[in-house]
Design a protein that fits this description.
The chain has nine helices and 21 strands. With 365 residues, it is α/β, with parallel strands linked by helices. It has a domain of 139 residues: FAD/NAD(P)-binding domain (3-Layer(bba) Sandwich). Helix 1 packs parallel to helix 5. 50% of the residues are buried.
């Protein structure tokens, strides 16, 4: 058995975290958070010729970036027809188009840990089936790839542009590339106080001109002014040994995305969900698995997915949700830019927000 609360993705025993910060440091921009979005920001800043330092309270990908379900999906958290209704047609279409381009870039850049399989949204009820039809109609209307699907998993929507990845492999590859190129990255370095000219940490003080806070879970704890609009939740998952009694060619979103699973190349299954069945306790900063949710996941694994494979991992992660459904990308304090609140779908949207924040921080369009 693996260590408690260890994701199935943590399969690289030779990984060496960046060293903690030792004393004070100086940079043009400090990036707080070394998940996917933070590392995209580090790269964009470095490519702009900016001296950048990146820090994380734990390790590269130690938060949701390395503990999520590994799904690569077009669009923001809301299904496209809902995004059109909530954000307006022009903004929703622009976001969807940008995520399609970003998906192409991720699959091209990380062939060692990504697969373009398409994804399924499978309806769990007649009402959800009607909603799938509405989503399908909006995607067709706007010229985005989608197919109606009926198969062993059920009935719903197939989005051929989507896929899966090994999330921790991806972020560690990004960190290695950044450090090889000369970026200063530090693990075990917690931001305690943030202004545009100074980030005080438990390891020293970083003097800088701008700060990009690229933290998803607990974002409102680090920047309390976001608390009225941002809230942290716990997402829980489990994984199995290779399951030879089922075959799942594509990742599945079920029950409006509350449950999601994929089968890895070795046959093992990664499954997450049921956050909404214990809402009172899942709005929390605690990122350890809980018995009620884990029991529901295990029951679903056996009864719905239909495998008897041994459960090998159980883990959780903190993510943040915005009240609007749109991600946060804004200057929350003078010279301090925050990105996050991806509402559970930050693998692609986070990279886009990171590049937007970098352009904003550097005074560009």
């Amino acid at each position: 058995m693996h260590a408690p609360n260890t994701p199935a993705w943590d399969d690289e025993p030779t990984w060496q975290p960046p060293a903690p910060l030792r004393g004070d440091a100086r940079a043009d921009v400090c990036v707080v958070g070394l998940g996917g979005s933070g590392l995209v920001a580090v790269r964009a800043l470095r490519e702009a010729g900016v001296r950048v330092i990146g820090i994380d309270a734990a390790d590269v990908g130690a938060g949701a970036a390395g503990r999520n379900g590994g799904l690569l999906l077009a669009g923001i958290a809301d299904f496209h027809h809902d995004a059109v209704r909530l954000l307006g047609h022009e903004i929703a279409v622009a976001w969807y188009r940008r995520t399609l381009h970003e998906l192409d870039a991720v699959f091209a850049a990380f062939p060692q840990c990504t697969r373009r399989t398409g994804s399924l949204r499978i309806a769990a009820s007649d009402a959800e089936l009607d909603d799938c039809r509405a989503q399908f109609a909006q995607l067709q209307l706007d010229g985005f790839p989608a197919e109606w699907y009926a198969g062993p998993e059920g009935e719903g929507l197939l989005v051929p542009t989507d896929g899966v990845m090994q999330p921790l492999t991806r972020v560690r590859a990004m960190a290695r590339e950044a450090m090889h190129a000369g970026a200063m990255l530090h693990s075990c370095t917690r931001a305690l106080d943030i202004t545009n000219t100074c980030v005080r940490t438990n390891q020293g003080v970083i003097t800088c001109d701008r700060v990009i806070v690229a933290v998803d879970g607990r974002l409102e704890a680090l920047l309390p002014e976001l608390a009225p609009r941002v809230r942290t939740a716990r997402l829980q998952m489990l994984a199995t040994a290779p399951a030879f009694d089922v075959r799942i060619p594509r990742p599945v979103y079920w029950r409006n995305g509350y449950e999601y699973w994929q089968q890895l190349p070795d046959g093992s299954i990664a499954l997450g969900g049921f956050r909404d069945t214990d809402v009172e306790h899942e709005w929390t900063h605690d990122a350890t698995p809980s018995a009620p949710i884990q029991e529901r996941l295990e029951q679903f694994l056996r009864a719905h997915i239909g495998t008897r494979a041994l459960i090998t991992h159980r883990w959780a992660a903190s993510v943040s949700y915005s009240s609007s459904g749109a991600p946060i990308c804004e200057e929350v304090r003078t010279g301090v830019f925050a990105i996050g609140a991806y509402s559970g779908t930050g693998n692609i949207v986070g990279a886009l927000c990171a590049r937007d924040a970098v352009r904003w921080a550097l005074g560009r369009e």
